[in-house]
Write a structure and sequence with these properties.
129 residues, mainly beta
Length: 129
């Protein structure tokens, strides 16, 4: 007699932008995340563009949480944090990074992030799944 266990989870991939990539003078973050809404865990990669197109982007891994809100227009909130290495191959500096955003049902929303001692808030968020 054999027994089988079936485990199903709701894991999805989420790609998008926090900030406006249209304005060349404003910083923005591209993210590629794996979201498990059952365990409320998020992990993935971010590319942080601080001074496009002059400066190379900072690239690193992040982890965080996701929760459904059930409140108002926003359907879920996501937080991210990580230690992002310098974009200069010679430097061994690692910068703390954290971000947060709230998404509506249409995968658009608002958020902000902290990086290299600067705080950016009320940035548009757009998810391309």
């Amino acid at each position: 007699m054999s027994t089988q266990t079936e485990i199903t989870t709701n894991v999805q991939t989420m790609q998008g932008t926090l900030g406006s990539s249209v304005n060349l003078n404003s910083p923005y973050v591209n993210f590629n995340l794996t979201v498990d809404e059952e365990t409320h865990q998020v992990h993935g990669t971010v590319r942080i563009h601080m001074n496009p197109p002059v400066e190379k982007p900072y690239v690193g891994n992040v982890k965080g949480t996701v929760y459904a809100t059930g409140y108002g227009a926003f359907t879920k909130v996501i937080t991210l944090e990580g230690a992002i290495p310098s974009n200069d191959a010679i430097s061994a500096i690692v910068f703390p990074f954290n971000a947060h955003f709230a998404l509506e049902a249409n995968d658009k929303g608002l958020g902000g992030f902290n990086f290299r001692g600067k705080h950016y808030e009320n940035l548009p968020v757009e998810v391309r799944s």
